[in-house]
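Standup notes
- DV: blocked on the single-chain target, sequence here:
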Amino acid sequence: MIDVMELNNYRTMTEAHQLLEYWNNLLERSRLTTETMALAIPAKKRRRIKSSSLNFINLFDISESRYQSRRFMVHLLAMKLLLQTYLQNRVSSMRELFYRDVAAFGYDQNVLNEALLNMSFVTNGGVPEDFRVFPSSKGLIYGGPLIQCSEGSCQKFELKYESDAILVPNFHNHLKIDTKIESIILFEKDSIFKTYCAHVKNNHLMLRGRHVFLTAKGFPDRLSMKLLKAFVTEQTEVPIYAFVDSDVYGVNIFRSYERGLGEASINLKYTGIFLLDYKEGWQTVSSREVILMISLLRQLTLPNPPDSRIAYESHLLMKQELSRGLLLFKKAEMNAKENFSKCERTLLTYLDERVLRVK
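- DV (later): unblocked, structure below
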């Protein structure tokens, strides 16, 4: 147990150090006992007792089951790691926090993510970012001919066609884009993204205007979505083209972007790839995928056309691709090495014609 004298010594320290030291002792001592033992959480005695001393409540006084007590311990550990990062004046990632005590989080990154998310809801803010903890960077971004992005008075990054793609950067404050963007192009697969970026790098003199290319390597992660929202917040009229596979997973990835953008998704357009345009990428759908496609078709609703023409057309195209897939029992996955059956156009030419209008 942590006695009263030990707690009184904490009052001479700063508030942050006080919490950190207390949670350190709390966690270390709780690990030496079972979860049915006292967790040593201080609580003031009732007012009718004329004493300023503290007593301690048992773990089961604040939880109804072993599962709830475990969740409580996880939140304490998450707060401890946040404070350690803040007091050490360093920048860290959520993945790095997870690896500091993998066993405590049950070898599951989502356990830590959920704890940090709950803390954000309680404080109505970005708790991890406030303590210099950012999501791990997974997505890639590329663009040009020259797009400069700054955070406050400092330049954050710049995009050039002559340069290579970069990891999506972390940023905390408002991101300012100093140049007007003609379009944002999203790719489901990083292999297609890299192939097309190499094509643009070698033929960028043919392009007109400034374009940004982004991939989250599948479903959009938190940091990639944050950057995309920063772009559309700064430039509300910029069109967004999404290239995903013609299957149930590609449609779900598009819908993830749609939900993440919220009201800004009115400029998000489902651009393909389409099943009948890419027979070289055909594969037979599995029985599980058939069930998922039927379920997704029932969920898809058509927005009101006057409110969002682009969203209405995108939902029509998604329903079209799912219906064609069920009729033919086929799906189409993009492959940069294959040719399109229609007019023997390559995938790169197809992307050029649909987005950049390069003849």
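- Follow-up: The two ends are 76 Å apart (CA to CA).
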